[in-house]
Design a protein that fits this description.
Blueprint: H1 13-35, H2 41-59, H3 69-92, H4 98-105, H5 108-118, H6 126-143, H7 154-175, H8 182-203, H9 213-236, H10 242-249, H11 252-262, H12 269-284, E1 290-292, E2 298-300
Antiparallel strand pairs: 1-2
Helix pairs in contact: 1-9, 1-11, 2-8, 2-9, 3-7, 3-8, 4-6, 4-7, 5-7, 5-10, 6-12, 8-9
């Protein structure tokens, strides 16, 4: 008699872990806003990821001697994409509004499944496509109408390249890191992002920051958060698809809005609707229609 294994739960430990770090990610936005008032973007990125890499190195100092060439190359590639996402978005904000920046950055949501399909021949389930569209509309509502204003200049172009870098980071983590040591790859990618930012400071004429209380506390707090976020991303994306991870990450501005509201900010009604749509997208991405076998038992279709 054949036994049929039940499908894995839609929300398991990897999904819950990504939801948790997305909440932390959303909470870092307020800290970054204060930090960049006392530091240039490159200096802050360099210091933040240096602290994160240092934390990882302390935790697994005995393992670093076993670092392989594959882990080094993979970590450097992911680190480059991390730097691109953070730095380009920050520089874009010097030329465009935060609403327009959020709107353009949101394009990483449809970019990930599209690249997965066109490059890696992984065709998403129709429910996933519907969820991607729903999440994108939700992100649009969260950004406000300013994100739709016409024009595509320097700031828009820089931010668009940053969105591509974010999409590449998510895809690289899902496709390359599963075969490698997560902690060692995490340390390399954090150190790479920090080193690139540090080396570019004199090239772009950015002055060293004043080591005041705001800068030091912000760097320490976000360094710890970055170490946790990047490690959990690497760990969880070994177990779930890049597209599913992307839909979870789309909830980051929802958490940022919730934390901002607690801090005294007010969300407009359309932003609240957008948040609801993003949450609905996450639920929809897990929906699969049931088909009946010849014996009348239900079969849940998979991707």
């Amino acid at each position: 008699m054949k036994t049929h294994a039940s499908p894995p739960p839609a929300i398991g430990l990897p999904e819950l872990a990504l939801i948790a770090i997305t909440f932390i990610w959303g909470g870092t936005f307020l800290i970054v806003q204060h930090a960049v008032t006392v530091s240039g973007p490159l200096a802050f990125v360099a210091a933040r990821f240096a602290v994160a890499a240092g934390i990882g190195a302390l935790i697994c100092r005995g393992q670093l001697r076993q670092l392989t060439k594959a882990e080094l190359v993979t970590g450097m590639a992911i680190g480059l994409s991390i730097f691109g996402g953070y730095a380009l978005q920050t520089y874009g904000l010097m030329h465009i509004t935060s609403s327009k920046s959020a709107f353009i950055t949101a394009f990483y949501v449809p970019i990930v499944p599209l690249v997965q399909w066109l490059v890696f021949k992984q065709r998403p389930h129709p429910a996933v496509w519907a969820a991607v569209v729903l999440a994108f509309v939700g992100l649009l509502l969260l950004t406000g109408t300013d994100g739709l204003s016409m024009g595509f200049g320097k700031g828009e172009l820089i931010t668009a390249v940053g969105a591509i870098a974010i999409a590449l980071e998510i895809i690289l983590i899902s496709r390359v890191s599963p075969q490698l040591n997560i902690l060692r790859v995490t340390i390399v990618q954090l150190a790479t992002a920090s080193l690139i930012a540090l080396l570019l400071m004199p090239v772009l004429g950015e002055a060293p920051p004043v080591l005041g209380k705001t800068f030091i506390l912000s760097v320490l707090a976000l360094g710890c958060a970055s170490a946790l976020i990047q490690y959990v991303m690497n760990w969880a994306q070994k177990r779930i698809s890049a597209t599913k991870a992307t839909l979870i990450y789309a909830g980051e501005p929802v958490w940022a809005g919730v934390i901002g509201r607690i801090a005294g900010e007010r969300l407009p009604a359309l932003a609240i609707v957008g948040a609801i749509l993003i949450i609905a997208a996450g639920i929809l991405s897990e929906w699969r229609p049931k088909r009946l076998r010849a014996d009348g038992k239900a079969i849940v279709s998979s991707d």
